[in-house]
Specification:
Blueprint: H1 2-25, E1 30-32, H2 45-50, E2 54-55, E3 58-63, E4 71-74, H3 76-81, E5 89-91, E6 95-100, E7 105-109, E8 120-126, H4 134-143, H5 151-167
Parallel strand pairs: 1-3, 2-8
Antiparallel strand pairs: 3-6, 4-5, 4-7, 7-8
Helix pairs in contact: 1-5
């Protein structure tokens, strides 16, 4: 009987873990700046961004040579003048994921002088369409996709699952 109870607990834990992976592993669209050309000089990022639809919860990711370029989030003045003064964020890992969590216009530039060679992009983030309006919900689904689970979210889910199996539900 103890074995049966243990097996049903393990099954329940695994099912709940799968639900957690699904709930926490799903996010907005990941927009890779410049698509397969990445974050490099001489690319028309205005054209790229005009062909994208950004919603709150989406990610914008920059892929570039780590020691050659960087990314700064600036205001419109910084964008227009290619200056990083008053920047609200900066990244330099070469594979940077930035959450677009507000409805607003975001401005990004390369802060090492390459902004003058076109390494700047501005994106307008829209609110999520209301689920009550049928036209916008279907319209939104054509622009959204399920982002793949990140290694971090998979590891977090595995660790949580293991802890639940090892210690049981009583420790929560």
């Amino acid at each position: 009987m103890y074995m049966h109870k243990s097996m049903s607990s393990t099954t329940l834990v695994l099912c709940c873990s799968l639900v957690l992976v699904f709930v926490y592993g799903v996010s907005g669209t990941d927009h890779i700046v410049g698509a397969n050309r990445g974050w490099n000089p001489g690319i028309n990022y205005t054209l790229w961004s005009n062909n994208q639809t950004f919603y709150v919860g989406d990610l914008i990711s920059f892929r570039y040579q780590k020691n050659q370029y960087n990314v700064f989030e600036v205001n419109q003045t910084g964008y227009d003048n290619c200056t990083t003064e008053g920047a609200v964020g900066n990244w330099s890992k070469g594979k940077d994921f930035i959450l677009l969590n507000e409805t607003k216009r975001y401005y990004f530039i390369c802060g090492n002088g390459q902004c003058f060679n076109g390494m700047k992009v501005s994106v307008l983030v829209h609110p999520l369409p209301s689920p009550s309006s049928p036209g916008s919900a279907s319209n939104h689904s054509s622009h959204k996709s399920v982002a793949p689970l990140t290694v971090e979210s998979q590891l977090r889910s595995i660790m949580l699952s293991s802890a639940l199996v090892w210690f049981g539900w009583n420790w929560i």
